């Protein structure tokens, strides 16, 4: 009876132990004449209001349609932690509205994503300073099909030591899968001589005809995709 009672007592605790696999992100774009001022304001805001569980990792976007902006990542946390955060302090909001927001353009984005361990070939927090992000937008109703393809791609990544973290957007616009390619030794890993092409590696794993099947899935079930390169800015991040 005593053992049974202990089991009952631990049931509520089990429900509260959620996985910390949720990140929140936003992008800020400086007014052309305010770049240095915005960087200073972002740094001060991060170091004052984003510590502990709410630390920021800030990246500068080097290429793609958002080049010149800043990509800020908070987390990972659990959904339960986000529930418990409650209202952000008045001082926090005032600092943002007074010292940061006026230095940005009206363009920006904000959202939540969940790390998908079963699709990734690297750990959630195995960060690198240089990354490339590919944003993949499945057609409506086709997300599971693309997830199935990513499970096969993960095998190729793992066998050829290519670290890629995969996230799925959650409640943040159109269905999206985010592939973060993490370069451990820098941009040299993008050179064709560093690693065999994905096509060669995919064929080696699944056969010569498999790559055509891969392309057919992409063409049929993906609405669009785009890519960008980013670099970590420790000077703009939480300490």
Structure description:
- This protein is an alpha+beta fold.
- It folds into two domains: 20-114 and 232-236, Alpha-Beta Plaits, CATH 3.30.70; 115-229, Alpha-Beta Plaits (2-Layer Sandwich).
- It is 36% helix and 28% strand.
- It contains seven helices and eight strands.
- It has an eight-stranded antiparallel β-barrel.
- A hairpin with an 8-residue loop joins strand 2 (56-61) and strand 3 (70-77).
- Helix 2 runs antiparallel to helix 4 and helix 5 (143-159) packs antiparallel against helix 7 (210-221).
- The N and C termini lie far apart (50 Å).
- The model is unreliable at 1-15 (pLDDT under 50).
Q: How does the SSE layout of this entry go?
A:
Elements: H1 2-16, E1 22-30, H2 35-49, E2 56-61, E3 70-77, H3 79-84, H4 90-100, E4 104-115, E5 130-138, H5 143-159, E6 164-169, E7 177-183, H6 198-206, H7 210-221, E8 222-232
Antiparallel strand pairs: 1-3, 1-4, 2-3, 2-8, 4-6, 5-7, 5-8, 6-7
Summarize the model shown.
The chain is an alpha+beta fold and 239 residues long.
- Looking at the structure, the CATH topology of the largest domain is Alpha-Beta Plaits
Euclidean distance between termini CA atoms:
50 Å
Give the CATH architecture of the largest domain.
2-Layer Sandwich
What is the radius of gyration?
21 Å
Helix count from the secondary structure assignment? 7
By helix and strand content, what is the structural category? alpha+beta
Hey, roughly how much beta strand do the residues contain?
Answer: 25-35%
State mean pLDDT (0 to 100 scale): 92
Number of domains: 2
